[in-house]
Design a protein that fits this description.
791 residues; alpha/beta; Rossmann fold; eight-stranded mixed beta sheet; seven-stranded mixed beta sheet; 17% strand
């Protein structure tokens, strides 16, 4: 019965178009399926051998609940996808034989065996290919004499390895078209082994670059439960970590596939598989899932889809595979993709939008150039195939080429198309191997965003930085707003950063804005008011000076030393004008002069006031009988006080300019949104020494004038000087804390106000009463009134 079923399958194969001209089924002794050998043979002067994987014997999931005689022992299944591999070989052989320029005076034949997806059976079929004996004897050729010049196969790494163990002994070249396993890179052990696929490590790099391209940082991994799957996990996990990508879950699937005849057993497998997969998906937010496995180690995917599809008819509300995922598959799965279309009603829609690596290919019209050389025929390592591609093998005997990136688009009629959406080119610069045309990708309809996200949590928006969640993988984090004066202008920035010099973050802290210059320009209201005030007070000072010069011979002008009065008025005029140097963009000349000139001029003014006050005191003391102070009274003493009081300040300013002079500077940090253009004082200590010395002169003047305020003199200035010094000291005492608490142009405005206020206080308190008498009450401005009031 079993043999009849197998023969029926073979007859079905014979009816397929383009089948091999001669097919032989050799039945050997015994009833075990491995004793039945399917072979495809066509003679020739030179013979190409082939080990194919076409028929798979699938065993039921046996249990002790059922008698062994009640279940089938084996069920053969023909994988029609792999039949295409056989047809391709036959086509190539026919093309070579039809072209006399390739193999003149010789014909090429082939002899193909099926190893039934069994690596142990591969040893028998390989020896049988070489020696053709039903009871084979190594090194003895029995049967048809043939000259095997090379062997094509196998599809999986274990099949290729088994073939290489035999063929390597006889130095017969072996061409593999589906073995990616890196263990085959041992060129010393497998010196006759060549493979028409790129190195598997390139796929790993492509997977990482694909995840980075779409920003998928939270991915699932599904591998077969075997040595190859374990090796893949060890390699890819370290690469994920280096690129800041986390594995959301890792599932290993059973290597073998069983056929469940009993419906209850099938239902149980479906429930188990559904719980396993759905549990991994539901507990994570991973929308990207990487599936790894060789062609013979991924049938669990086929079986799972079949089981779930069938059992969904019974329990549709429970048995369901998750949809709306991006399945990322390696190139190996492409060898079995057509299996999803044949034999069962598979749920192909769940793989809609899958992205897969595929061996680079073009539509090939012939294999003429490809087979010109399959060991002695591989003297050249580089040749062109009929599709126009250059085929180059590297030092390990593997194809030195890249991969195509394909997108799986499925249809409800169980058909599908694979759309090429990019490529993986190993010849490109590091990090640039992957190129993707994302606009051509069709995503699963379950996604609300294209391209979909696959993250542990939502991306941190611009203006936010990451904060790690304790006890979770580094891909899981919270998003915190950027600290003050910091920004982030991209998604997923690890930390917020400061803006470049001269810029500041906007309100959303997602970009930087150029800071505006901050200085007291002439066009600003503060500058206009200050300029107008300075010029107004300057005109008043000139007017007062003119009045005093015009009435220089009157008693009130002569009474308190005209020369000191003129000096004081000139100093006050210069003080008002000095304030104008604080307005406008700071320049080198204004920075050097404005503080020093103001300090010197103000010190001369204060020294003049001190000289006037001391002159009043000495003049009163000199009027007493027998006083020896009379000889000190006079202009020389006054000039000496002015000179000595000013020379100290001049010395301080000269030392300041010589050691650490002021200079134009910018302050980019004191104010968030503005760049302060300022005069750097050079030495803050020297600046406060200038202010301190002026304070010292003002304090001495205030003390002396306060003590002399009640002296009996009709034109006694002491009481007016007392008030002026009181105003002066009040202004400059409040100046220091106000000056230190402001920034930018407002700091300059505070100093201008202090200069104008203190200077106008001196002008008003000292000279307004005198001008009132000179202009309004001239009758009081005479010697007789002076003598009368003294009496």
């Amino acid at each position: 019965m079993i043999f009849a079923i197998r023969m029926l399958l073979l007859l079905l194969l014979l009816q397929l178009p383009g089948m091999v001209p001669q097919v032989h089924t050799v039945v050997c002794s015994g009833t075990n399926p491995v004793d039945i050998t399917h072979e495809w043979y066509e003679g020739g002067d030179l013979v190409i051998g082939g080990i194919a994987s076409l028929i798979r014997y699938m065993s039921p999931n046996l249990s002790f609940k059922t008698h062994p005689s009640q279940v089938f022992i084996d069920i053969p299944v023909v994988i029609t996808k792999y039949y295409q591999h056989i047809v391709a070989l036959v086509f190539a052989v026919d093309e070579i034989n039809e072209n006399p320029k390739i193999l003149p005076n010789a014909t090429l034949g082939f002899h193909i065996y099926d190893n039934y997806f069994d690596s142990r059976m591969t040893y028998q079929t390989t020896l049988d290919l070489l020696f053709k004996s039903h009871h084979f004897v190594p090194n003895y050729i029995c049967g048809i004499q043939k000259n095997v010049v090379g062997v094509i196969g196998g599809l999986s790494s274990d099949t290729s390895s088994s073939m290489a163990d035999v063929l390597g002994l006889y130095k017969i070249p072996q061409i593999s078209y589906g073995s990616f396993q890196q263990a085959m890179n041992d060129h010393i052990k497998f010196s006759s082994f060549y493979r028409m696929v790129p190195n598997e490590g390139l796929q790993y790099q492509g997977i990482i670059q694909l995840l980075l391209y779409f920003g998928w940082k939270w991915v699932g991994l599904i591998t077969p439960d075997n040595e190859a799957g374990e090796r893949f996990l060890q390699t890819i996990e370290s690469m994920l970590f280096k690129n800041q990508i986390c594995s959301a879950f890792t599932e290993t699937m059973e290597y073998h596939v069983h056929i469940n005849i009993n419906m209850l057993d099938m239902l149980g497998d479906a429930v188990h598989f559904s719980k396993l997969i759905r549990g991994a998906f539901i507990t994570s937010k991973a929308n990207a899932v990487v599936i790894y496995g060789e062609s013979r180690s991924i049938p669990w995917l086929l079986n799972a889809a079949k089981i779930v599809t069938v059992t969904q008819l019974i329990l549709p509300q429970y048995i369901k595979l998750p949809e709306g995922k991006v399945w990322i598959t390696t190139a190996q799965i492409n060898f079995i993709l057509d299996m999803f279309q044949k034999g069962f009603d598979y749920n192909l829609q769940m793989f809609y939008g899958a992205i897969s690596f595929a061996i680079h290919s073009k539509e090939t019209h012939s294999f003429q150039d490809f087979l010109q050389h399959l060991h002695s025929f591989l003297k050249r390592i580089s040749f062109n195939n009929s599709a126009g591609d250059e085929i180059t093998l590297n030092e390990y005997g593997e194809l030195a080429a890249g991969f195509d990136i394909t997108n799986l688009v499925t249809f409800r009629n169980k058909s599908y198309v694979r759309v090429k959406v990019g490529k993986l080119d190993p010849q490109s610069p590091p990090g640039k191997e992957l190129t993707i045309n994302a606009e051509r990708i069709k995503w699963h309809s379950g996604f609300t965003q294209e391209p979909p996200l696959s993250l542990c949590n939502a991306n941190c928006r611009p203006g936010y930085g990451k904060r790690k969640k304790e006890g979770e993988k580094f891909c899981c984090y919270d998003c915190d707003p950027c600290p003050h004066e910091m920004f982030s202008n991209e998604k997923e920035m690890e930390i917020c950063v400061r803006c470049p010099a001269g810029q500041y973050p906007n309100d959303d802290q997602d970009q930087c804005i150029s800071k505006t210059p901050n200085f007291l320009g002439f066009d600003e209201t503060l500058a206009i008011v200050s300029t107008f005030s300075a010029l107004l007070f300057s005109l008043i000072t000139i007017l007062v000076l003119g009045i005093f010069i015009k009435h220089r011979d009157t008693a009130i002008v002569k009474a308190n030393n005209r020369s000191l009065t003129y000096i004081l008025l000139l100093c006050l005029l210069l003080c008002f004008l000095c304030s104008l140097m604080f307005i406008g963009t700071p320049k080198e000349a204004t920075c050097l002069l404005r503080q020093t000139s103001f300090g010197i001029v103000f010190s001369v003014a204060l020294s003049s006031i001190l000289a006037k006050t001391i002159s009043v005191v000495l003049a009163f003391m000199a009027t007493k009988p027998g006083s020896t102070i009379r000889r000190w009274v006079g202009k020389k003493l006054a000039y000496s006080i002015v000179l000595s009081g000013s020379i100290v300040q001049v010395g301080i300013c000269v030392f300041w300019l010589a050691t650490s002079p002021p200079f134009p500077d910018v302050d980019m940090h004191s104010m968030t949104e503005e760049i302060i253009f300022l005069c750097n004082e050079g030495s803050v200590l020297m600046f406060y020494c200038v202010l301190g010395y002026m304070g010292f002169l003002a304090s001495v003047s205030f003390t002396v004038s306060f003590l002399a305020r009640k002296l009996p003199d009709s034109f006694n200035e002491a009481k007016f000087i007392t008030f002026s010094m009181l105003v002066f000291c009040s202004v400059w005492l409040s100046f220091v804390p106000t000056y230190l608490s402001t920034k930018g142009k407002y700091m300059v405005a505070v100093e201008i106000f202090s200069i104008l206020a203190s200077s106008s206080g001196l002008l008003g308190c000292i000279f307004f009463p005198k001008c009132y008498i000179i202009v309004v009450r001239p009758e009081l401005n005479n010697r007789e009134q002076l003598i009368r009031r003294k009496i």
